[in-house]
Specification:
The structure is a single chain. The protein is α+β, with helices and mostly antiparallel strands. It has two domains: about 20-70 and about 235-255; about 85-210, no CATH class. The protein contains six helices and eleven strands. The chain has helices at about 5-10, 30-65, 75-80, 165-170, 190-200, 230-255, and strands spanning about 20, 25, 70-75, 85-105, 110-120, 130-135, 155-160, 175-180, 180-185, 205-210, 255. A five-stranded mixed barrel has the order 4-5-6-10-7. Strand 4 (about 85-105) and strand 5 (about 110-120) form a beta hairpin. Helix 2 (about 30-65) packs antiparallel against helix 6. The protein is elongated and about 85 Å long. The chain starts with a helix and ends in a 9-residue tail after the last strand. Keywords: Cell membrane, Membrane, Transmembrane, Transmembrane helix. It is found in: Cell membrane; Membrane. It is a multi-pass membrane protein. This is SURF1-like protein. Its main location: membrane.
Length: about 270
C-alpha cells in the first residue's frame, strides 16, 4: 500500500515541460498515449472519406457516360461484364396483376411513392420488376395513389442490380394490400422480389428503371449513387474537425499557469 502514492505520482509526472509565455505545457503519460493513439485514427478517417469522395466522382463520371449511350437490347446488356446502369430497350408486355408500391419516397422535399410493375420481355424467361417512377402523395390521409394502368409493348430504361438486402427493412417488412395493390413502407429489392415470388413469379435479379418521359404522370429522376461526393466531404470535414478539437483539448488541458513559487525545471 505504501508504494501506490509513488506509482500515482509517477503516472501523473509530466513527460516534458515547455514554457510558453507565462504558462508551461506539461503533458503527462496517460493523456499523451490517448492523444497519440486517437489522433491518427481521426485523420485517417478523414482521408478515407476524401478518397471515397474521389471514388464517387469517378463512378458518377462513368455512369453519366453510360447514360448518354444509346440503349441496347436486354440480351446484349446482360452479356456485358458490368451491366448495372446500362440503358436497355425491351419488347414484351406487362403482367397486370402485379403492382407493388414503396411508400415514404421523397423527391425535392415532397413525400410520395415509387411504383413497381412486372414486365415479361420477349426472349427472356424471367419477368422483370420495373420501376415505373415516383408519384406524389396528394395528402396525409392518402393510403394508396391512383396508379395508371401499365400499358406498353416496348420500354426503355436503365438496369439496376441489387446492392444487397436492407436487413432493417427486410426484418420489419409489413405489406398492406388495397384493391390488389401491395404497399411496403420502404424500398428493399430483396423484399420486393420475395413478394413477387409469393405471387407466383420468379423475377430477374435486377430492376429496369424506366426512362424519363415528359408525357408520363410519373417522375423518373434516379440518383446515380446513393451517397454523393459532397456527403463524403462533409464527413471528412467532421473527422478533421474532431482531430482539431482533440489537439486543442490536449493542449488546453496540459497547459498550466506558472505559479510564482514554481520553476519550469522543477
Amino acid at each position: 500500500m505504501s508504494d501506490s502514492p509513488k506509482k500515482q505520482r509517477l503516472w501523473q509526472r509530466p513527460l516534458f515541460q515547455l514554457p510558453i509565455g507565462n504558462r508551461v505545457f506539461r503533458p503527462s503519460l496517460i493523456p499523451t498515449i490517448g492523444f497519440v493513439l486517437l489522433l491518427p485514427v481521426l485523420l485517417r478517417l478523414g482521408v478515407w472519406q476524401l478518397d471515397r469522395a474521389e471514388e464517387k466522382r469517378g463512378l458518377i463520371s462513368a455512369l453519366e457516360q453510360k447514360s448518354e449511350v444509346e440503349p441496347i437490347s436486354l440480351s446484349q446488356a446482360l452479356e456485358l461484364e458490368t451491366a448495372d446502369m446500362t440503358r436497355v430497350i425491351s419488347k414484351g408486355e406487362p403482367i397486370q396483376d402485379v403492382t407493388l408500391i414503396t411508400d415514404n419516397q421523397t423527391r425535392e422535399g415532397h413525400l410520395g411513392y415509387e411504383v413497381f410493375g412486372l414486365w415479361q420481355p420477349e426472349g427472356y424467361e424471367k419477368p422483370i420488376l420495373v420501376s415505373r417512377g415516383w408519384l406524389p402523395r396528394k395528402d396525409f390521409y392518402e393510403k394508396v395513389p391512383e396508379v395508371p394502368l401499365f400499358q406498353a409493348n416496348t420500354i426503355e430504361g436503365s438496369l439496376y442490380f441489387s446492392k444487397g438486402a436492407n436487413s432493417v427493412v427486410a426484418n420489419n417488412a409489413v405489406w398492406q394490400e388495397y384493391d390488389n395493390v401491395w404497399i411496403l413502407g420502404q424500398f428493399d429489392f430483396e423484399t420486393l422480389a420475395e413478394k413477387v415470388m409469393q405471387m407466383g413469379y420468379d423475377s430477374a435479379p435486377f430492376i429496369i428503371r424506366m426512362q424519363p418521359d415528359t408525357e408520363s404522370e410519373f417522375v423518373r429522376q434516379w440518383p446515380l449513387v446513393a451517397s454523393p461526393p459532397e456527403k463524403h466531404i462533409a464527413y471528412a470535414i467532421q473527422w478533421f474537425a474532431m482531430a482539431f478539437a482533440l489537439v486543442m483539448l490536449f493542449i488546453i488541458l496540459n497547459l498550466k499557469r506558472v505559479q510564482h513559487h514554481e520553476s519550469t525545471n522543477s
